[in-house]
């Protein structure tokens, strides 16, 4: 099986991607010898901040000398980003090898597993074959019935910021969603939670108590900002100073969660020095999150795709570029709350340049542009990404103001691929 054949096989089963439940994943991993039972995990669920929290945690564990797996979604540029060991994507030939092994198991199942179930099983098998010491495992959707939850008790179960999302699958109240996400808590694990709203904290506390799992809520007030600039942030935590190349107040709140994860891992015997924490924080990579693509003109790439992400974006603009208007390159999926996102970004906009991400769920470019024009903003629509990037950067350069690409991780991946081509040429 080639890499292309492996991707084609996995993607052939997207029809059942939103069917929650653990039965098929358990059957599939059992046919592989239950690789997940031979691994140790930090398991991370939540609505916002999961990926950043996972990236920071994995970077620290790697700096501490542990062979560290990292499982995240979605990918930005290449499918192989989803499955990493020590910061390196799974090689294409290894993805093909493990997928072929998995195919032989999956084809014997009466109820064929879905795309996400198969990818998760591929990751477990790869991490085992690579002899990972620990895996930082991001939940796909929800928690209790997510495929990743076939693991046994993790070292730490982590709950990041929780809000209303995927209500058709997870419940239509924040309490119901919190309970579903808290389903990753198991007897024998420790729990670290973001400082969520009181009703969410109450649910997490209840589920942790039911499972006899010690619980810590991270206190973001324990982090003191020292300085911030376009290269990142410097903060103090318990008398020690750290540099974080990720931007935004929300990343400091995520960092407070990571510091508590480290504390809990140390309590369980993991050898993580202060220097490993310092180096891991300083070296963390998490692309398309307020990422500086160029300085002249200043062009910022962010894959934010919901109103909470738009709020985080405006917080960063206020902190780093106070009072400056921005030329936005915007592309959004139709199933997102794009009107609220536009309203949040609007006060910061000098102009909007619209494009449709390459995805079947993308909001049409004219529909997006019409929605923005109706609010009185200078708005342009493009069908060609190269033209859109050149236009927004040209406007920013001519008017000596920043450009920001925002609205979709799919669009972010396209923009990064564009920049890779430009640099290569």
Describe it for me?
With 425 residues, the chain is α/β, with parallel strands linked by helices. Helix content is 42%, strand content 18%. It has 2 domains: 3-283, UDP-N-acetylmuramoyl-L-alanine:D-glutamate ligase, CATH 3.40.1190; 291-424, Alpha-Beta Complex (Protein-Tyrosine Phosphatase, Chain A). An 8-stranded mixed sheet has the order 4-3-2-5-1-6-7-8, with helices on both faces. Strands 12-13-17-14-15-16 form a 6-stranded mixed sheet. It starts with a helix and ends with a helix.
Give the helix tally.
15
Gyration radius, rounded: 21 Å
CATH class of the largest domain: Alpha Beta
Write down the CATH topology of the largest domain: UDP-N-acetylmuramoyl-L-alanine:D-glutamate ligase
Arrangement of strands in the largest sheet: 4-3-2-5-1-6-7-8
CATH architecture of the largest domain: 3-Layer(aba) Sandwich
Estimated structural class: alpha/beta
Uncertain residue segments: none
| Percent in helix | 40-55%
Q: Please outline the major beta sheet.
A: 8 strands, mixed
Full CATH superfamily name of the largest domain = Mur-like, catalytic domain
């Amino acid at each position: 099986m080639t890499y292309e054949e492996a991707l084609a096989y996995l993607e052939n089963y997207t029809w059942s991607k939103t069917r929650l439940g653990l039965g098929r994943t358990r059957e599939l991993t059992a046919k592989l010898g239950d690789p997940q039972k031979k691994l140790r995990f930090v398991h991370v669920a939540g609505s916002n901040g999961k990926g950043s929290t996972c990236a920071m945690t994995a970077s620290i564990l790697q700096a501490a000398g542990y062979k560290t797996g990292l499982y995240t979604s979605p990918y930005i540029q290449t499918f192989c980003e989803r499955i990493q060991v020590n910061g390196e994507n799974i090689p294409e030939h290894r993805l093909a090898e493990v997928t072929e092994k998995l195919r032989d198991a999956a084809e014997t199942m009466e109820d064929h597993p879905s795309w996400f179930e198969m990818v998760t099983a591929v990751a477990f098998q790869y991490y085992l074959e690579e002899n990972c010491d620990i895996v930082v495992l991001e939940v796909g959707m929800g928690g209790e019935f997510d495929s990743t939850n076939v693991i046994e008790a993790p070292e730490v179960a982590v709950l990041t910021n929780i809000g209303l999302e995927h209500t058709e699958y997870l419940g239509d109240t924040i309490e119901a969603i919190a309970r579903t996400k808290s389903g990753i808590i198991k007897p024998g694990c420790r729990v670290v939670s973001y400082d969520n709203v009181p009703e969410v904290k109450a649910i997490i506390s209840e589920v942790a108590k039911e499972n006899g799992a010690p619980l810590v809520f991270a206190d973001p007030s324990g982090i003191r900002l020292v300085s911030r600039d376009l290269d990142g942030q410097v903060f103090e935590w318990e008398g020690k100073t750290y540099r974080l190349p990720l931007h935004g107040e929300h990343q400091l709140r995520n960092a407070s969660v990571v510091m508590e994860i480290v504390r809990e891992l140390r309590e369980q015997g993991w050898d993580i020095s202060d220097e490993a924490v310092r180096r891991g924080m300083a070296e963390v990579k998490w692309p398309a999150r307020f990422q500086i693509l160029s300085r002249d003109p200043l062009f910022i790439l962010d894959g934010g795709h919901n109103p909470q992400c738009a709020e985080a974006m405006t917080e960063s603009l206020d902190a780093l570029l106070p009072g400056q208007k921005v030329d936005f390159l915007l592309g959004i999926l139709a199933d997102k709350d794009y009107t609220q996102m536009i309203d949040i970004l609007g006060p910061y906009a000098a102009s909007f340049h619209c494009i449709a991400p390459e995805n079947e769920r993308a909001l049409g470019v004219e529909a997006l542009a019409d929605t923005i024009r109706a609010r009185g903003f200078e708005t342009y629509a493009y069908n060609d990404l190269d033209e859109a990037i050149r236009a927004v950067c040209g406007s920013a350069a001519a008017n000596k103001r920043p450009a920001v690409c925002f609205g979709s991780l799919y669009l972010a991946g396209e923009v990064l691929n564009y920049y890779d081509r430009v640099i290569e040429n």
